[in-house]
Amino acid sequence: MTTTGEQFDPQLDLAFEREVPLPPEAIWAAWTQPEHLVHWFTPAPWRTTECQIDLRPGGLFHTEMKGPEEGQQFSGVGCYLDIIPQRRLVWTNALLPGFRPNPSFADSSCGDFPFTATIELTPTPGGTLYKAIVTHRDADGRAQHAAMGFEEGWGKALEQLVAHMQAA
């Protein structure tokens, strides 16, 4: 699988692809408007409780997520890299807003891993071909992300996105 301008590396990258019965515009709105994103972004039983989006290269992408058990909480912060409305959205957690390096990844023992995510939307007669490609710094980061349930989690989140946008 290739992405626009990049080569997919199965040693470092994970990919997820499905055709969904929504137009690209609806998926784009789900990804770029906090009032939609909080309803689907985190696979249940986790939930997204906050979202901030500054949709421009170098802009903020921030989410707060809570798990079903007391004290389970995760904060995600990153930076948008590339934005082509209704076609392509790229962000990374390796950089903070303004393209500032994320100091969390200076120490590889921090228990988290840097990645860059690309969402590609291609119109189809039945809706949209949805591709998510996540590139990792190293094989360990890829393995950690895969072990967390990348395929299942991103699949469940996409199902939640479709259900939310069909009801919206």
**Largest pleated sheet:** 7 strands, antiparallel
Mean pLDDT: 92
**Which structural class do the helices and strands define?**
alpha+beta
Count of individual helical segments: 4
- Give the tally of β-strands: 11
Write out the strand line-up for the largest beta sheet, numbering strands in chain order: 3-11-10-7-6-5-4
Domain Activator of Hsp90 ATPase homologue 1/2-like C-terminal: 22-165
Organism: Chitinibacter mangrovi
Protein name: SRPBCC family protein
Family: Belongs to the AHA1 family.
Provide an overview of this structure:
The model is unreliable at 1-5 (pLDDT under 50). A 7-stranded antiparallel sheet has the order 3-11-10-7-6-5-4. It has a two-stranded antiparallel sheet with strand order 1-2. The chain is globular. The protein is 24% helix and 40% strand. By secondary structure, it is of the alpha+beta class. The protein has one domain: Alpha-D-Glucose-1,6-Bisphosphate, Chain A, domain 4, CATH 3.30.530.
List the helices and strands and how they pair.
Elements lengths: L1 E2 L2 E2 L5 E8 L3 H9 L1 H4 L9 E7 L6 E7 L6 E12 L3 E5 L2 E2 L3 E2 L13 E10 L2 E10 L2 H9 L2 H18 L1
Family: Belongs to the AHA1 family.
Protein name: SRPBCC family protein
Pfam family, one: AHSA1
Brief summary:
The chain has four helices and eleven strands.
Descriptive terms for the model:
ASHA1/2-like_C, seven-stranded antiparallel β-sheet, two-stranded antiparallel ribbon, alpha+beta, globular, single chain, Alpha-D-Glucose-1,6-Bisphosphate, Chain A, domain 4, disordered N terminus, 168 residues, 40% strand, START-like_dom_sf, SRPBCC family protein
